[in-house]
Amino acid sequence: MSLFSPAEPAPPEGARDDDHDLVERLKPVLMLDSAEPAPPLALGYSVIRTAGKSPSSKFHIVPLPGGMVIEYAIWHDWDIQHLYDLEHVWVHVDAGGAVARVEGSMHGMRVAIDDGGGLPEMQGTRPVLYVEPGKHAIWGVSRIMRFIAGARIAEMCGPDAGSGGIHLGNTFAENGAWSATAEQHRLARLAMKRAAFVPRFDFPAPAAEPALVPWTALEHWIPKRMQALISALSETVPHLEAILLDCGDTLIDEATEVKRPGSEVVITAEEIPFAMDAVRALHERGYRLALVADGPRETFENMLKPRGIWALMEAHVISGDVGAHKPSPKMFSAALAGLDLQEAAKPHIVMVGNNLSRDICGANEFGLISLFVAWSKRRSHQPATPQEAPDFRIDRLDQLVAMIEAIELALPERETAHE
């Protein structure tokens, strides 16, 4: 069970058929790296006696004359780079019932598996296969795996963990069995980044084996399992609930403001370099955004609507509407209400602003995570009180997305669901 997998639905059970005993006798022994975070949960088998399209993969299968191919579809909830992983082993059986050849899936390919003598290592009638750490490609010899691909495997299990999000390039998803929002993709990537590990390339004897069921039973179960996995992400993966954004000298350069004569309403101003791109990138990653700014509403509509940013924010909390300025808790309470978030969400909300006495102090006193944007030199960068000391700081807006992602990745493990 992974750190973000639900307990249900459990691996399927299938009625024993006439081939079950044969399939059980020849099923592969899957050797896992001792640090592997996502072991297989089920083996779905098909017995193929005539040439044709594989029941569970993209390949064309041709049995030996008078023989058969036992196709084992190996289900892992995820590999280290994406949610959903279906690997394969093909055991070719000759007319006499002996194992004649073994093939395995390897990063989209089908490759012969052997230890130099035509067959892999055998444990009685069962081929012994080595599962690539993190990615689950099938190998016949572990030392060759490490020699040929060890450095790349380590990269995939470490710096590149989570790069794929939720896998949608498979037959199930393409046929509408599941879909994913930007937030769900982000949470899946986050969960796998949190599960990043260093492969050990040692492969102890398996303590338990995955359930063995007909492919038809596994095929029926996989969509239900994926739906449960995706639904569970928001409850099981620690994540940021919202990003609150100031505007003046956080997104818009106050030094360039032109105000309507006789009023405080800003008509035009220049954006801070990279600011709008950063907001768009946060939205594309599925973060919930809200404006929390001091001034008249018309100012922020003038600044953000023409740039397409206003519509990316789910709530617009403006002092002119609230009747209070930051650091008043009324501003932050209004943001929670506008986002329909509860008090318990506070430790998972970031306030981004340039003003230590308003944005940072207000966020700290309200129990939010504070992020100081030090781009402008118009106001002090030195906290006057401990309450003005920010949790985090950036100097340019092209650093915002990376900082938000780093904050999210570092959230405590146990603080996940808000009740």
Automatic annotation (TrEMBL):
Recorded hits in InterPro entries, A to Z, give:
HAD-like_hydrolase, HAD-like_sf, HAD_2, HAD_sf
One Pfam family here: HAD_2
Give the UniProt keywords, A-Z.
Answer: Hydrolase, Magnesium, Metal-binding
Keyword 4Fe-4S recorded? no
Say if the entry is tagged with keyword Magnesium. Answer: yes
Could you tell me which residues belong to the region Disordered?
Answer: 1-20
Gene Ontology MF terms in the entry: hydrolase activity
This protein is called what? Hydrolase of the HAD superfamily
